[in-house]
Amino acid sequence: MRILCLDYGDKFTGIAVSDDSESIAVPLVVIMSHEIKKLIKIIVDYKVKRIVIGMPKKLNGANNKQCEKVCKFKKKLENKIKKISIDNSRFTDIVFWDERFSTIGAKNNIMSLRLNLQKEKKVIDKHAATFILQGYLDFKNFN
Question: In which element (H, E) is residue 140 found?
Fold first, then answer.
């Protein structure tokens, strides 16, 4: 059973997943944000019990227009999950996690891998999801 993290954007959604012990976040894939069927398949294949969605708040902690889009996406995803036959005894919920500075953190990690800018654009979203998920896992495991 794993925890999945989504870095939802208007065009692309980065996806990361935890290991079975829920202590390490691993980058998985970037999908088009409208590809809900593909996302549902990932949820089922990885036996996800919880989904963490990055909430893109302003630096002062206030919500913005993108937060509204993320909330609408969460509702849409919840409705899709209810309609399919995911074992409800293992799937718990979808939660938000503050994603401020996740893109900066992801870019720093990518720069350390020495990827060129073209490759960076293809992986930044899944690394941002990994950064968000690792923060969530660390908080969950140390509290």
Answer: helix 117-142
CATH of the domain at 79: 3.30.420.140
* Residue 51 CA to its chain's centroid (Å): 7
CA–CA separation, 123 and 48 (whole Å): 22
pLDDT mean for each 10 residues of the chain (143 residues): 94 95 94 94 92 87 87 94 67 84 57 56 80 90 80
Sign for the pseudo-dihedral over CA of 53, 93, 69, 58: negative
Q: Is the pTM of this model over 0.90?
A: no
Domain extent at residue 43 = 2-142
Task: Report the domain count for the chain.
Answer: 1
DSSP per residue over 97-138, as a string?
Answer: EE-TTHHHHHHHHHHHHT--HHHHHHHHHHHHHHHHHHHHHH
* CA proximity to 52, closest of 34, 82, 25, 20: 25
If we measure between CA atoms, which residue out of 50, 58, 114 comes closest to residue 86?
50
Sign of the CA dihedral running 94, 81, 27, 67: negative
